[in-house]
Amino acid sequence: MQMTFRWYGSKYDTVTLKQIRQIPGVTGVISTLYGTAPGEVWETADILALKKEIEDAGLSLAGIESVNIHDAIKVGTPDRDRYIDNYITTLERLGQAGIHMVCYNFMPVFDWTRTELARVRPDGSTVLAYTQEAVDALNPEDMFASISGDANGAILPGWEPERMAHIKELFEMYRDVDDEKLFANLKYFLERIMPVCDKYDINMAIHPDDPAWSVFGLPRIIINKENILRMMKMVDNPHNGVTFCSGSYGTNLENDLPDMIRSLKGRIHFAHVRNLKFNSPTDFEESAHLSSDGTFDMYEIMLALYDIGFDGPIRPDHGRMIWDEVAMPGYGLYDRALGAAYLNGLWEAIDKQHKKEEASK
Ligand code: DNO
């Protein structure tokens, strides 16, 4: 595996590449052209400039998170092919620039959804949190207003104000889209992009829906083992793979994370590893990465990744806000750096133990 760190670009991020370079064991950056809208073709010059900036800082551009999918593709409207053509051009240009991993999601309307961006924990840190009761009590517009007011001035991925201004129309577009239709539209999209992925060896890594169930009545399909295996089979190409995000699949306590990882051998192209602390099955907060601070056994998650021979980029995920940092919720420097160091420590221990056992056989 390659330990990486998500970075939104010097125009948008409070964290600098120099700081990332100083986190022990972090060698790569996961980035994007954050200013581009879903559906736009990415300019080669912008891709190369991003890559150069990262390489000049002594890091590698280990993949893109995300090249977002236009709603026309998810809904399957008659103009979807135009947007797929644009997507293919972007992939071609990324491939030509030597980038081989692209993370995306197929969530209708919103990307990930949280109901609080700064829940205070007993140690005074603040964290992202979700409680189903709050979602049930709100409509999507109110939710957007409450979330954007708490974002420390940052634009949250998937909650771009331009898109949210059309939230009613977006909901209207998805009125006739159910799970089956969404699966069919995903299949159509994947079948069209696989040739370019084969040509440039680009691993597509779909991000799970977060939380892993329907919110506001919208269909959500990338939520559990059964559905992702269905997705792998429906377009059975090794470039059709997943981002294994423990914090997203983990929102549903019925998802057995290590078992899911083992069932996806060869198809996990990117890993987001973080913990969650559940207060009830529908109320959780994003605790520190450490197992004992949350509900998941992080050792078992890392062991499963090790056992399947995972060799792609991995990153710590949302961090707490600690030490008075002011940053995009979930994406400050300090707690994610602690997360990276912890995950590297688990990996080193697992690797050494494994090698010792092999040597004594
Ligand atoms: C949340 C992230 C997601 C993810 C997208 C991928 O912090 O993990 O926004 O980047 O769903 O397209």
Structure notes:
The chain has 361 residues and is α/β, with parallel strands linked by helices. It has a single domain (2-360), classed as Divalent-metal-dependent TIM barrel enzymes (TIM Barrel). It contains 14 helices and twelve strands. The strands form two sheets. Strands 1-2-3-4-7-8-9-12 form an eight-stranded parallel barrel, surrounded by four helices. A four-stranded antiparallel β-sheet has the order 5-6-11-10. Strand 5 (116-120) and strand 6 (126-131) form a beta hairpin. Helix 12 (257-263) runs parallel beside helix 13 (298-307). The longest helix is centred in the last third of the chain and has 26 residues, at 334-359. The protein is globular, with a radius of gyration of 19 Å. The model has no long low-confidence stretch (mean pLDDT 95). Residues 65-66, 103-105, 111-112, 157-158, 207, 272, 318, 330 line the site of D-mannose (DNO).
* Distance linking N and C termini: 25 Å
Tell me the fraction of residues in β-strands, as a range: 15-25%
CATH class: Alpha Beta
Mean pLDDT: 95
- Annotation, overall tally of beta strands: 12
| Largest beta-sheet characterization | 8 strands, parallel, barrel
Question: Could you give me the name of the CATH homologous superfamily?
Answer: Divalent-metal-dependent TIM barrel enzymes
Protein structure class: alpha/beta
Helix content: 40-55%
Rounded to an integer, what's the Rg over CA atoms?
19 Å
Number of separate domains: 1
Low-pLDDT sequence parts = none
Ligands in the model, by name, code or SMILES, are: D-mannose
CATH architecture: Alpha-Beta Barrel
SS field, number of helical segments: 14
Give the strand order of the largest sheet, numbering strands 1, 2, ... along the chain: 1-2-3-4-7-8-9-12
N-to-C SSE string, H for helix and E for strand: EHEHEHHEEEHHHHHEHEHHEEEHEH
- The rough form would be described as globular
CATH topology: TIM Barrel
